[in-house]
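<instruction>
Derive structure tokens from the sequence
<entry> Chain with its tokenised backbone below:
===
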Amino acid sequence: MSSPAFAHDKSPDAFRTISEVAIQLDVPQHVLRFWESRFSQIRPVKRAGGRRYYRPEDIDLLRGIHRLLYSDGLTIRGVQKVLKDRGVRHVAMIGRGDATQMFAAPSPVVIEKVVYVEKPADAPPPPRARKQAPHLRPVPAPMSLPFFDAAEAPKPALEEWSKLQLLLDELLGLKARLHAARR
């Protein structure tokens, strides 16, 4: 059996004891036990007598948690939020040093450009009248939008307006179903 001082002689895939991991991360063993109580994602293999053996994935996760706590200055709750939002793999990648690109904000991709236009006050009601949301209000007829020229602003015909209204109703119905499904 090798002692913690000779842990570097082990294969990279070998399991490590809590003392070996504590030396590797430069934290006391009781800190690792405390982290196990705060982060359910840390699950070392426990053998007879309760002896802990950490897999390489566990060590990567512990390194990531160590970096977030000590280098990045996050709190325990902050690291829990990162684990919940970004996942164990993300934190393990931080531990391996592979996460330099993961902190950068993803480059935005424009999928669709949506323009919301409220009904003018004097527009005829659509064929299928809906109860108007309390946070919306009619706007005066000459509406200026920053990305349309007043002369170029399209004015939908009544049948186009009806189609748009039906599409809006369908989208609102889908939104309501999505909210109900999330509950």
Q: What stands out?
A: The mean pLDDT is 76. DSSP finds six helices and three strands in the chain. The chain has two domains: 4-96, 115-183.
